[in-house]
Amino acid sequence: MSSPAAQQPSPQLFFQTINAYQRTEGLKAAIELEAFTAIGEGNTTAPEIAKRCGASERGTRILCDFLCIMGFLNKDGSRYSLTPDSAMFLDKRSPAYLGGAIEFISSPMITESFKNFTEVVRKGGTTMTDGGTIAPENPIWVKFARAMAPMMALPAQLTAKLVDPTADRKLKILDIAAGHGLYGLAFAKNNSQASVVALDWPNVLEVAKENARNAGVAERYSTIEGSAFDVDFGAGYDLILLTNFLHHFDPPTNEVLLRKVYAALAEGGRAVTLEFVPNEDRISPPDAAAFSVTMLGSTPSGDAYTFPELESMFTNAGFSRSEIHRLPPSIQQAVISQK
Questions:
Q1: In CATH, what number does 12-97 get?
Q2: Do 339 and 319 touch, CB atoms closer than 8 A?
Q3: How do residues 18-55 score in pLDDT, each as one tens digit?
Q4: Ordered DSSP codes for 88-139
Q5: What is the pLDDT of residues 147-171, one digit of tens each?
Q6: ∠ at Cα 255 (158, 308), nearest 5°?
Q7: Alpha-carbon span 325 to 303, nearest angstrom
Q8: How many helices (H) and strands (E) does the chain have?
Q9: Is the pLDDT of residue 110 over 90?
């Protein structure tokens, strides 16, 4: 039998990648024009969608065709329809709507370094001033707290169920870099005996306190204002949450923080870390592994850490053991470290 012909070299990947900015801007335009919502409401032709969105018919047709090419829409004749993913995450009427996340993900604070990524690679870290996104009291984190909360609701609930499955005992919880507060609040809603102390910058904590009131757990929710590296945590915590935080810093800096975490835990207490965790090859799974690029562009020394790297940091800080857990369908994983 003859072997199949070897795949011929093609410039397709080059052109797809160098033009990828069009995909980003096309999706942003569709979100800003509420095209997905318009289609979900029953406007299915280009003229109907254009009228609902206040846009030109020509522009709407080309945009919607492009969204079909990208996989965000389906097309049958001249009629467009939402894919299941778009109906769930991009129709503003959906409780899982993620369109607001572009306020953070596409903000200049996140994208600026990538306009001169060559210099970022030469330097080995962000070219933004004052440490990029980790600058003290950076207003970007208020935007994060408001824009990203819908995306964090499911992993927060999954984490609470994983760590506190029976929800039948009193828990004192410290939520470091709480942001929107959803991770700590998930524990409070899951367990009526859980009390949460949220730590973050004062302006960010206003968002977390608002969410605590909306969740009906404000009486079990208190705050500490300031930097996790500087403030006094207190002591006697059963759980300390470190969600989407360690990736901003290098291992020695993280170990300084983790020693504080260790000291603040009660005997038998646990640290719960949520991270994008690549395999040891650092190229798989692709979404988690690629997060290192985000950290290269936006922080001086952050990274996407493998489980052995995270495990080493916790061990060096005094923890007895760490274990990793998947949280499907989230691409992030939970690391639970025992004092």
A1: 1.10.10.10
A2: yes
A3: 999 999 999 999 999 999 999 999 999 999 999 999 99
A4: HHTSTTSTT--GGGHHHHTSHHHHGGGGGHHHHHHHTS--SGGGGGGSTT-T
A5: 778 888 899 999 999 999 999 999 9
A6: 60
A7: 20
A8: 17, 9
A9: no
CA distance 20 to 247: 26
Instruction: Record the tokens describing residue 184, joined without a space.
Output: 């700590």
Residue found by looking up tokens 């507060």 in the block = 181
Instruction: Name 319's Cβ contacts closer than 8 Å, sequence gap at least 6.
Output: 258, 262, 271, 337, 338, 339
Domain range annotation of the chain? 12-97, 136-338
Would the pLDDT of 274 be above 60? yes
Residues 6+ away with beta carbon under 8 Å from 216: none
Whether the Cβ atoms of residue 74 and residue 68 lie closer than 8 Å to each other: yes
Tokens of 158: 């999954």
Q: What is the dihedral of CA 63, 66, 72, 78, to 10 degrees?
A: 70
The listed CATH number (3.30.200.20, 3.40.640.10, 3.30.450.20, 3.40.50.150) that belongs to domain 136-338:
3.40.50.150
Tokens representing residue 264 in the block: 């603040």
CA 176 to each of CA 48, 172, 199, 244, 294: distance values in angstroms, whole numbers, following the listed order: 47, 13, 5, 10, 21
- Residue closest to 39 by CA, chosen among 29, 50, 28: 50
* Band of pLDDT at residue 1, cut at 50, 70 and 90: very low
Between the two ends of the chain, the Cα-to-Cα distance in Å is 61
pLDDT digits (tens, 9 = 90+) for 282-334: 999 999 999 999 999 999 999 999 999 999 999 999 999 999 999 999 999 99
